[in-house]
Design brief:
Radius of gyration: 18 Å
Number of domains: 1
CATH architecture: Alpha Horseshoe
Number of helices: 9
Strand content: under 5%
Helix content: 40-55%
CATH class: Mainly Alpha
Order of helices and strands: HHHHHHHHH
Shape: globular
CATH topology: Serine Threonine Protein Phosphatase 5, Tetratricopeptide repeat
Structural class: mainly alpha
Mean pLDDT: 79
Length: about 240
């Protein structure tokens, strides 16, 4: 496998983003920018109609998955639609995730795992980003799956940054450290942390080191209430 989260020990850290992220991903999950979802799941906005639109898209996705249970695009779409509906059913003023929302997220996770079982060459990054929230301790508390999904998102961010000639995504590396620490993957978290430090501007590396220590201590909170943005799992603030 090209990327293996469970690969044996590696030698000295190299300050090249791609080489080290290659160590961080689950065997069988090849990473890249996600393919587009079928048209019936195109993102829409519409005020009070949004929930109804999401439920309509979920109904279409469920039908498509029944007809094509081993279609990668369909299963990715199903996971996305189930996630959207689950999140929409918990009000913004809620102080904790409802059991109904958790059940919906479990259904989304089931579709996502069925999707990954097909070993897609380019896992859908948009859906992986949603699953990084679904798997967090305050939601489904499946930390290994959280780390795996975050690895997909981080790898895609690194690829996009290199293609655009931008600095590697330090914030995304820190999110991956947080997920790996939660999953008990200390060695992987150490490698990711070293990558984050190397990617940071020289003047910020000391601050990044301190933030990594905080993440490794496990004191940084993770998302878990409807009041948090489900698309952006919490991590430390990098500042400007």
């Amino acid at each position: 496998m090209l990327f293996d989260l469970r690969a044996p020990g590696r030698k000295r850290f190299i300050q090249v983003t791609y080489v080290f992220l290659a160590l961080l991903l689950v065997g069988g999950i090849f990473v890249g920018v996600g393919t587009g979802l079928p048209s019936f799941l195109d993102t829409q906005t519409g005020g009070s109609d949004l929930v109804e639109q999401q439920e309509d898209r979920l109904e279409d996705a469920e039908k498509a998955a029944t007809a094509s249970p081993r279609d990668e695009r369909v299963l990715a779409s199903l996971a996305s639609a189930r996630y959207d509906v689950a999140i929409s059913r918990t009000g913004e003023d809620a102080t904790q995730i409802s059991e109904e929302t958790k059940q919906g997220l479990r259904s989304a996770a089931d579709a996502w795992k069925r999707y990954l079982a097909l070993e897609p060459k380019q896992p859908n990054v948009d859906v992986a980003r949603k699953m990084t929230t679904a798997f967090q301790p305050g939601y489904l508390n499946q930390t290994g799956d959280w780390a795996d999904a975050q690895a997909i998102v981080t790898q895609a961010a690194a690829e996009e940054a290199e293609q655009a000639g931008r600095r590697p995504p330090v914030a995304s590396y820190l999110q991956l450290v947080q997920a790996q620490v939660a999953a008990g993957r200390k060695r992987q978290a150490k490698i990711t942390g070293e990558t984050a430090i190397a990617a940071a501007p020289a003047g910020q590396r000391k601050a990044i080191e301190e933030q990594i220590k905080q993440l490794e201590s496990g004191d940084v909170p993770t998302g878990g209430t409807a009041a948090t943005n489900p698309e952006e799992p919490r991590t430390v603030d990098l500042g400007d």
